[in-house]
Specification:
two-stranded antiparallel ribbon, two-stranded parallel sheet, 7 helices, 39% helix
């Protein structure tokens, strides 16, 4: 999947994305635009592919696996994808394994101005509506 994403997102790693592209708008004025990748709906399995995380790890923060099913007042820090990219380049598999990151070159690490924790959102159909439907079927 990351080979396909690399191909599709290659234009976003262009230096012009930082300084902007000139575009003629409908009103005839020339404006700068800055292409960005914003949003993607995904269920948990899709999140593990997109983030390159091992199953049973949180795709957003570094909550310990044994704490995932518990409510906690503790706030865990977000994954540091920049640090993971550096660890991957240094072949530091120990650091990647600690946080449940697969030892792959995640193409999203190279997209400028992309904060992965803001990219993927919960897929309401798979995660909420199906659960409500399951509950209703069991209840009835």
């Amino acid at each position: 999947i990351h080979e396909v994403l690399t191909y599709l997102l290659k234009p976003l790693s262009n230096a012009k994305c930082e300084i902007g592209y000139e575009m003629v708008c409908a009103d005839g004025n020339v404006r700068l635009y800055f292409p960005r990748l914003f949003y993607c709906l995904a269920d948990y399995i899709e999140n593990t592919l997109i983030y390159g995380i091992v199953s049973n790890y949180c795709s957003t923060c570094i909550t310990p696996v044994e704490k995932l099913d518990e409510y906690s007042e503790t706030s865990y820090p977000y994954h540091s994808h920049i640090d993971y990219a550096i660890a991957y380049k240094k072949t530091d598999t120990k650091s990647l394994n600690i946080y449940g990151i697969k030892n792959i070159n995640n193409t999203l690490w190279s997209v400028p101005n992309l904060k992965l924790t803001d990219l993927v959102r919960v897929d309401i159909l798979h995660n909420i509506l199906f659960r409500v439907l399951d509950h209703l079927i069991e209840w009835i």
